[in-house]
Amino acid sequence: MIFLFVCLLLPYKKKAINLCKLTLYTVTLTKFAYFSISFLVEILGSLMYTIMSSPSRESVVVKI
Predict the structure, then answer these.
(1) CB atoms within 10 A of CB 16
(2) Tens digits of per-residue pLDDT, 19-37?
(3) How far is residue 21 CA from its own chain's centroid?
(4) Sign of CA dihedral 48, 53, 55, 60
(5) Contact, 39 vs 30, CB < 8 A?
(6) Phi and psi based region of residue 32 (left: phi greater than 0; alpha: psi -120 to 50; beta: remaining)
(7) Is the dihedral of CA 43, 45, 48, 52 positive or negative?
(8) From CA 64, how far away is CA 51, in angstroms rounded?
(9) How far is residue 59's CA from residue 2's CA, in Å, rounded to a whole number?
(10) How far apart are the first and last CA of the chain?
(11) What is the reported pTM?
């Protein structure tokens, strides 16, 4: 099946390469977005925990 796909794309080599680049770029961008959001959630969760567990609760009030 893959061999047939490659044979069909040989005449359109430049377009096939661009398609592969676009596919890889999209996958990379999706992974980057996922890890960025995960990192942001981790940082915000840590910050919220630090603020809520501060010794003087009267000075800092955080409601989310």
Answers:
(1) 15
(2) 677 777 888 888 888 888 8
(3) 18
(4) positive
(5) no
(6) alpha
(7) negative
(8) 12
(9) 64
(10) 53
(11) 0.42
